[in-house]
Design goal:
single chain; alpha/beta; Rossmann fold; 6-stranded parallel sheet; two-stranded parallel ribbon; globular
Amino acid sequence: MSEASLSQPLGVFGGTFDPVHFGHLRLAEAAADSLGLAAVRWIPAGSPVLREAPHVDAKQRLEMVRLAIAANSRFELDSSEIEAAQPSYTVPTLERLRQPEECGAQRPLVLLVGADAFSGLTSWHRWESLLDLAHIAVAHRPSYPVEADSLPAPLSSLFRQRYCANTAELTASPGGRIACFSMTQLDISATRIRHLLSTGESARYLLPDAVISYIQNHHFYLEN
């Protein structure tokens, strides 16, 4: 990657990805376009804390993400959380990315989250430190922007203080700002996909064919 690219914002996209689907892919693609990101780094969680235990083990979820993003040159895969074999928290992940051998202290990092996840941000481990380490970009449905008044009080205040309407501001500092971007609304969820697969129904066109083949070959998400 060129030196110029290394100074551009890097999107950071974590999740369980159980399984990865087109909703995830569309969010990352929309973020890259809307926010001027040089790349989006996908970081599957090894052992997520705020969610139920994944239905598929960590290395297999990592492989599904690898298959899903393989054709997109702007997408990168980070396996560190999977290899760590310990609970996954966002702030320690960002602290790792800030190390000199990773992204360093000065490159703009942009944490990508959905509007629902953002509204629950105050329940995250050390959430007050997030903006010390990165910007936050919130994906929302077209014509339904994030409104400060709809957020919990501590988050509402933070949103008003840190919100930037001009996404070019994300390039001006390593972190500290909150931006929003609109993404194509896709009514797709991993829960729904798992249900379809468990009952033998088709999940085609909800996730990439390569991921479907991998799931079928390994007999994931079948009813016990």
